[in-house]
Design brief:
Helices cover 35% and strands 25% of the residues. The protein folds into two domains: 120 residues, no CATH class; 259 residues, Penicillin V Acylase, Chain A, CATH 3.60.60. The strands form three sheets. Strands 1-2-5-6-7-8-11-12-13 form a nine-stranded mixed β-sheet. It is α+β, with helices and mostly antiparallel strands and 391 residues long. Pfam families: AAT (PF03417). This is Peptidase C45 hydrolase domain-containing protein. InterPro entries: Peptidase_C45_hydrolase.
Length: 391
């Protein structure tokens, strides 16, 4: 078993032990049903690490770092050094978060980067970290009324919504996995929301040969930290070329409290941004815009399978054509048959999703549920005005 395989195995063991959230879990508000992290970004990083701070979990992290420190292959460290510089330059808030997270675990900054982005360091060409997709409903006036999405992260990842209240920054309600520094999709206090999917692409930057590269899974949280409304966010995405996604691309739906909906398809060196005024918005694991379709990766059997499943998810959503938030929840909970949105995409196809989120803008409600089996897990409802006002 080589170094990368050992890291993967240890992470899997860590996640399998981290099986549930209890009222005593650090920073968990059992009444609201969410985690709450506040202070400086370094404080928040430390708090993220504390949500999984049992001795055996910390021992597992120690095993990973021991393997990293003992390896004679400097490739991982060289890649981590490039990522560390890129994150510090292009996303300083997340750089500080990683510093706090790493320090709590007894790691130096480079080791923290290596642990946080290990899948990219081990296999930077493949990107399947943000799945399955997102769907947006529009009313007769072309305004987005609901936005929902599924995250297909693995049967052992324990996740929950978390409220981030950084000093001097917008409050953000976002998905996160216990103990791990990976906040992604969600909504901020300005009413800007983002959900979507990652895309395996043919256009890959010269890996670790440039200064401005970031993992594509950081893009949703970057948007929530920097965005105020849909148009301003679209401007940032079109103009800010510092953010060239590493290891693939992203297909995102972005909307705001006024209901303006946009779709952003982004790969290294290419991006297509469009505003959606009718019908519905769908983001799945392939590019839809005519200009971006040639970038969908078909070079391996694995990427061809993922592309096939992504097309099936898209067709499934189009055919179901939800009209209400209740219909959209049915789509997000679908587990049976080809194209189901809670589908793993590997043998055996057990039909699970690890986290689902639905924002009903008319009611100001944020819904979430977790499940690793084809069932109907309990749904949490969070009233956004109450959460943001109270914090």
């Amino acid at each position: 078993m080589n170094l990368r395989q050992r890291i993967v195995r240890i992470i899997e063991l860590y996640q399998s032990w981290n099986t549930r959230i209890s009222p005593d879990t650090a920073f968990f508000d059992s009444k609201a049903g969410i985690f709450h992290f506040s202070g400086s970004w370094r404080d928040i990083g430390k708090q993220l690490a504390q949500t999984s701070s049992e001795a055996r979990h910390r021992n597992l992290f120690s095993q990973i770092i021991e393997n990293l420190r003992s390896t004679q292959d400097n490739t991982l460290r060289k890649r981590a050094n490039v990522l560390q510089k890129s994150i510090k330059k292009s996303f300083p808030q997340y750089s500080d978060l990683l510093c706090g997270w790493s320090k709590y675990l007894g790691l130096d900054e480079q080791e923290g980067v290596m642990l946080a982005v290990w899948p990219l360091l081990a296999n930077p060409e493949i990107n399947n970290l943000i799945s399955c997709g997102a769907y947006a409903l529009l009313d007769g006036k072309g305004r987005c009324t609901s936005l929902g999405g599924n995250l297909d992260l693995g049967p052992t990842v324990i996740s929950a919504p978390a409220l981030f209240s950084p000093n001097g920054g917008p409050q953000i309600l976002a998905h996160f996995a216990l103990g791990l520094p990976w906040p992604t999709i969600g909504v901020n206090q300005y009413g800007l929301a983002v959900m979507g999917a990652s895309v395996n692409t043919l256009a890959v930057p010269p890996l670790f040969q440039q200064d401005e590269i970031l993992p594509v899974y950081l893009l949703p949280f970057w948007i929530l930290v920097h965005g105020y409304n849909t148009r301003q966010t679209m401007f940032l995405l079109e103009q800010n070329r510092l953010f060239e996604p590493l290891n693939g691309g992203a297909n995102l739906l972005i909307t705001d409290k006024d209901g303006e909906l946009a779709q952003a398809e982004i790969s290294s060196g290419s991006r297509q941004v469009s505003f959606i005024k009718s019908d519905a918005g769908i983001a799945v694991n392939h590019f839809l815009a005519q200009e971006m379709q040639p970038l969908n990766d078909t070079n391996s059997s694995n990427t061809r399978l993922l592309l096939k499943l992504s097309h099936e998810r898209y067709d499934f959503a189009r055919n179901l054509a939800p009209k209400t938030p209740e219909d959209l929840e049915v789509l997000l909970r679908s587990t049976q048959g080809t194209g189901a949105w809670c589908r793993y995409g590997k043998t055996p196809d057990i039909g699970w999703t690890s986290a689902s989120y639905l924002i009903d803008f008319r009611k100001g409600v944020f819904k979430s549920w977790n499940g690793s089996v084809p069932s109907r897990p309990k749904c949490r409802e969070i009233h956004l005005e109450d959460i943001f006002d109270r914090a």
